[in-house]
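Sample entry (216 residues):
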Amino acid sequence: MADEQNPGGSVSPSDSPGEPAVKPSQPAAPAAKPAPPKPAAPPKAPAVMASTPWEDDLTRMLKERFGESITEFSTYLGQPFLVAKPEAVAPVIEFLKLEADFDYLVDVTAVDWPKRTERFDLVYILYSFPRNRRIRVKTAIPDGYRPPSVVPVHLTANWLEREVYDMFGIEFAGHPGLRRILMPDEWQGHPLRKDYSILQQDQQWVQENLGIESGQ
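Predicted structure, serialized as tokens:
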């Protein structure tokens, strides 16, 4: 019977009762690639307004003249600034012009902090041509406070204070003609206040003056 099933007389591995069947070799599994290194953590951002003390001949002169009316002298990224009480701002700016050659008022602007008791920061940027130097005078005021105008000291404050009034609603006492400068006179609200939605429009003004339903 065996010869009939296997005429050649050869014995296959499966026919040998004492030997295991030989299985074809399998290719070796590729070595696992090492996990890529984790990216380095990004550097921590510097603290907001991580300022350093500012002290020089100018600060000593201001301390001697104004005492506790100036509450801080600091510098941030090489930009010096002082913080003054609201009633001292105009006298400080006048002193800087007449006694320290800061003869150019570059800008007046504001920052709105609606959750803070002193809601607004007012910032005056001054430049001295003789010194080739720029400084900032800052103060904090509550909503509704009317800071004295510095137009009598710097005529350039006229339009700058009008812009702050237009955008933030801060009224400057003694300004010679405080009215809007960017928005139409009839516009309602002050667009740079944080509670003024970026999508908000004075719909009535748009409809009456532009003849369209919405400015959006």
